[in-house]
Amino acid sequence: MIDLYYWTTPNGHKITLFLEEAGLPYQLHPVNIGKGDQFQPDFLAIAPNNRIPAIVDHAPADGGAPLPLFESGAILLYLADKLQRFIPADLRGRNVALQWLFWQMGGLGPMAGQNHHFGTFAPEKIPYAIDRYVKETGRLYGVLNKHLGQQAAAGKDCIAGDYSIADMACYPWVVPHERQRQNLADFPHLQAWFQRIQARPATVRAYARALEVNAAPPAPPDEAARKILYGQDQSTVR
């Protein structure tokens, strides 16, 4: 059994995508980040960076005590290695998947996240910041589109050949493409890949689980939630 500490964000969706694909039994524990649940001591004991997602694996491969993990990329890699699924077994294929996983963690996620913040959630609309992150998101879409085009030319449908944790990491960050002011028609290989992932039964199940937890569409937070989400500094680390 996997305990998944989760909220309905792109990083949270990564893990439900994996668990639904793998058919692993898991229990969802909602962590409402707009209400400050991520600062509860029990959650911080698992995720000291006060961010979702986090998991506790009650049956780790070493047979030891339950294993807590935070950081979505680390969780995906751990689960893939645990099951020996959704990551290529050969050296070269594995490292293709890993480099695109890290590309998402270091590039697409942070840049699209800033795009969301300044374009949708910031109380003051700053044209320079919006333009900066919209353009950088578009550049990153272009990078992935080019790679997927090369994969398609080689007869491959996904980022690392077969469906893998690289796809699971990237897909949720492309779901909000309209909020990111991106037109998928401008990225035909990315658009075709997106539609294939969207149609997978496990993807449908994963996003249905999200609606069980939080059916509200993204909206600017109120002042209390804004302080929780965007007003933290070193004094809040406890």
CATH topology of the largest domain: Glutaredoxin
Percentage of residues in strands: 5-15%
Q: What is the CA-based Rg, rounded?
A: 18 Å
Determine the number of helices (DSSP H or I, runs of at least 4 residues): 9
- CATH secondary-structure class of the largest domain: Alpha Beta
Main β sheet profile: 4 strands, mixed
From the spread of the alpha carbons, the general shape counts as globular
In CATH, the homologous superfamily of the largest domain goes by the name Glutaredoxin
Q: For the terminal residues, how far apart are their CA atoms?
A: 29 Å
Question: What structural class results from the helix and strand content?
Answer: alpha+beta
Parts with pLDDT < 50 across at least 5 consecutive residues? none
Share of helix, binned: 40-55%
How many separate domains?
2
Q: Residue-averaged pLDDT, rounded?
A: 95
Strand order of the largest sheet: 2-1-3-4
Instruction: Report the count of strand segments.
Output: 4
Named CATH architecture of the largest domain? 3-Layer(aba) Sandwich
List SSEs in N-to-C order.
EHEHEEHHHHHHH
